[in-house]
Amino acid sequence: MIGIVLAGGTSSRFGTDKALYRFPNQQVNNAQLAVDKLITICDTVLVSANQQNFAELTRQFSASSGVNVISDQPPFEQCGPLSAIYAATCLFEKPNDYLTLAVDYPLISTEVLATIANHGNCYAATPDADHYTLAHFTVDQQTIKDFLLLDDYRLSYFITEVKNCDPVSFSNAALFINYNTPEVNEHEKQK
């Protein structure tokens, strides 16, 4: 299984790069936190970076065994998470199992990821939301390329309609807080 850390977003609502950000209660930045969780489950972890954070993430993970930093590949640059998945598939000739994790879920536990990894073609869901960037599926380059050529960049549609992934339900929604601002109140810091 190959882990993909989705670290290439623009972080426009966040105001600073989410991947490189370290919340006050964290020992490492969000990208490192995601890698540390995925590397316990996956054979290889690919960190999908953007143009702004590629050099810094490459330096950060240069000595990390089993971790590689990748960037969007033409012609599908800056198409959101699907660009990252396409870039990952460009590295392999055959279909692979992928486990995705966005850097804006710092509270996700390795137990949650292991549960997702143990289900084929699935994504995480909580009572109030579907979390498509926390997913496990098998895909090859041609399948995702064909989808992207339709100019449809919705990860939700790709996950549910193309890959026919099913939700895996989790009751503890607190683990799935998607941080879109760097401000963390005291209650959230203690979770």
From TrEMBL:
Signal peptide: none annotated. GO terms for molecular function: GTP binding; metal ion binding; nucleotidyltransferase activity. Residues 3-126 form the MobA-like NTP transferase domain. The keyword Magnesium applies. It holds the Pfam family NTP_transf_3. Gene3D superfamilies: Spore Coat Polysaccharide Biosynthesis Protein SpsA, Chain A. InterPro entries: MobA-like_NTP_Trfase (IPR025877), Molybde_CF_guanTrfase (IPR013482), Nucleotide-diphossugar_trans (IPR029044). GO terms for biological process: Mo-molybdopterin cofactor biosynthetic process. This is NTP transferase domain-containing protein.
